Amino acid sequence: MHKVFAILVAIALTAHASAEDLTVLSGKIVGTTPSAMMNVYLRQLAYQALDRRKAEYEKIKTPAQQIEYQRQKQRLFIEQLGGFPERTPLNARVVGRAQRDGYRIEKIIFESWPRHYVTGVLFLPPGKGPHAAVLVPCGHSANGKAQETYQRVSIFLAKAGLAAFCYDPIGQGERYQILDANGKPRFGPTTEHTLVGVGSILLGTNTARYRIYDGMRAIDYLISRPDIDPKRIGCTGNSGGGTLTSYLMALDERIYCAAPSCYLTNFRRLIDTIGPQDAEQNIFAQIALGLDHPDYVLMRAPRPTLMCVATRDYFDIGGAWDSFREGKRWFTRMGYPERIELVETDMPHGFSPLLRLGSVRWMRRWLLGRDDAITEPDFNIMTDDEMQCTPKGQVLLIEGARSVFDLNAEIADRLASERKELWAKSGKEKMLEKVRETAGIRRASELVPAKVLSRTQVKRGNLAIQKLVLQSESGIVLPALLFVPEKPNGEACLYLHGDGKNEDAGEGGPIEQLARKGCLVLAVDLRGIGETGIATTSRNPREPFGPDSKDYFLAYLVGKSYVGMRAEDILVCAQFLRSDGRATTLRVIAIGEAGPPALHAVALEPALFDSLELQRSIVSWDAVVRTPVTRNQLINTVHGALRYYDLSDLLAAVPAGRVTVKNPADPAGEALK
Predict the structure, then answer these.
(1) Residue 343: closest CA among 316, 310, 302
(2) How many Cβ atoms are within 10 Å of 397's Cβ, its own excluded?
(3) Distances (CA, A) of 408 to 89, 172, 197
């Protein structure tokens, strides 16, 4: 682990004598603030995994080894996405045609899944074809395919002799998945994509799966047309469209020529600069399993690939050049150095003119065999209305249309039936082992006992309050308050509040009331909560993911769940209380965000606990999947959990009479009705 954690004893503690000052940590933890602890901890795990991946890359020296590497990475990528379904009929139809200056358009609607509609505009060059065609997935633009730069690259391609199919990904243009009562989008693209991700993660899939599959079905549509040459297919897109281009070019071998723009960098530079982005750009455990940005290029070699990058992009240019160098060495080893190139423009993020120029010239070179210096002409673009395909401007306003949330609900129905059968067939003990494996929770006996790095004491009347810094593992400290009653009665309570230990620790509060009755109370900030949490206004319903979404996705990338990590914190703290010798019984009170990890800990290690009380906690992940607009539920998700268990299964697994649920919350953060 990084040296910043080697001197954790340097943590500064508050020296105030007042019992009302219950802050445990102050200052910095060897150069970083307590609120940055999780980010630093997770970065170290990421760096270690990225170093392992780079070492693996350097060992590959022969074309045979390269081919095996490509196959292994593709299998891994698809598996982590959750796989793809069998193709269903597209039921494609042309809903509008128009002749433009030097090209023509057709407005298309097709079904990537039954009654799940995709809207796109096909820009066609003159002539009957068959034409080479370029798929153009949109970036994160509110109006999708109607956005000016995506129109410009599509029109430029058509004027350059190539068909271009520009379609709306979910959450953009005519394909918003969450509408208000007036049929208007409630959220912007990235917010909607991550709302889709919350439920998808629990099902063992990802927003990316839906977006990739839409792109594959768009290619299915293109090659179904007699005026399109199925052997001359390209793909180019910018930003979120660059993400989709990177994914599609790695997985769909029908894409012969690709030019992703303003996305590819590498994970080391990404996490050191802007951090992980929305749900579709994070594939579960991909860093831990050795899947980095350059692998999207390596997987498709030696098919022609142009990286379009911008000097002043927030996707780091240094990381882009590192990935390009990996790709150049890889293509060269295969004998095709000319098939990978990079074009860089001194511009900020965006499909700016020189990147569009580079992309179109690249497509002409490899799809038309014309290696010339074509330039982008001046032309008019269409209005949003002129680009509209659906009658009312949104696919969900088509009668019978299904959203991604509907598709997820269908998966949830199937998994609920399978879980019931699995628990009945396998038995509780075997399924709890599956819970442990899925959430990533080690046995209590495998955990290193908590180390007390520091202990100070304040008095509140005849009640002693000890301020503790507990180290639960290398790089992780848990600030805690130990309320020591004057006359202990042998009872101990582990008090876990999702908003931090200080919420209920004030004079006359719930924790003091327990202590006044003789209970020894350890109130702990689990990692990423309270003093090691990130200050925010995220309790505002307009901000649905919480302040720790970037750290959550960093954990997701390295294959860890916050639920699992926090459950281990709870086990360590429970063992600490048990080892004190003053407690004959141990109860847990878990409030809000602390509820799911506490439930995991008690269900998996019932011998450590005598009872569990959940307050204002969610009690169903299935309900999360079925709630499009969740609030602060990302941090509570475990990838693929609903394949094997729901929170209700854990409630049932706790020994009878040991668990109480008070005022449960729904996935939107409101009291469950």
Answers:
(1) 310
(2) 13
(3) 20, 19, 10
The span from the CA of 599 to the CA of 646, in Å, is 11
Closest to 102 measured CA to CA, from 167, 35, 174, 154:
154
Q: Could you say which DSSP state residue 122 is in?
A: E
Find the Cα–Cα–Cα–Cα dihedral 193, 195, 201, 203, rounded to 10°. Answer: -110
**What is the predicted pLDDT for the residue at 31?**
60
d(CA 363, CA 371): 9
Alpha carbon separation from 253 to 167, 188, 231 (Å, rounded): 20, 32, 10
For the chain, what is the largest distance between any 2 Cα atoms, rounded to a whole number of angstroms? 92
Is 9's pLDDT higher than 90?
A: no
Band of pLDDT at residue 671, cut at 50, 70 and 90 = confident
Residue 500 CA to its chain's centroid (Å): 25
What's the rounded Cα separation, in Å, for the pair 78 and 209?
A: 9
Q: How far apart are CA 193 and CA 211, in angstroms?
A: 10
Residue 572's contacts (CB-CB under 8 Å, 6 or more residues apart) are 447, 448, 449, 450, 470, 472, 473, 478
Q: Does the CA dihedral 467-469-470-472 come out positive or negative? A: positive
State the average pLDDT over residues 616-633. 97
Q: Nearest to residue 667, comparing CAs of 617, 601, 597, 612?
A: 617
Q: 80-402 belongs to which CATH class? A: alpha beta
Strand 451-460 with 103-113, pairing: unpaired
Model-level pTM greater than 0.70?
yes
Q: Is 618 helix (H, G, I), strand (E, B) or coil?
A: coil
Domains 80-402 and 429-662 share a fold: yes
Decide: 63 and 333 in contact? Cβ < 8 Å. yes
C-alpha 538: how far from its chain's center?
Answer: 18
Residue boundaries of the structural domains of the chain:
80-402, 429-662
Task: Name the pLDDT band for 290 (thresholds 50, 70, 90).
Answer: very high
The pLDDT confidence band at residue 536, using thresholds 50, 70 and 90, is low
CB-based contact 268:319 (threshold 8 Å):
yes
Q: What amino acid occupies position 376?
A: E
Mean residue pLDDT across the chain: 94
What letter represents residue 517's amino acid? K
- pLDDT above 90: residue 406: yes
Return d(Cα 433, Cα 530) in angstroms, integer.
Answer: 30
The dihedrals phi and psi of 405, each to the nearest 5 degrees, come to: -65, -35
Cα–Cα distance, 524 to 588 (Å, whole number): 11
| Residue corresponding to tokens 């939107």 | 668
Rounded distance, CA 391 to CA 138, Å? Answer: 21
Q: What is the pLDDT of residue 673?
A: 74
Structural fold of domain 429-662? Rossmann fold (3.40.50)
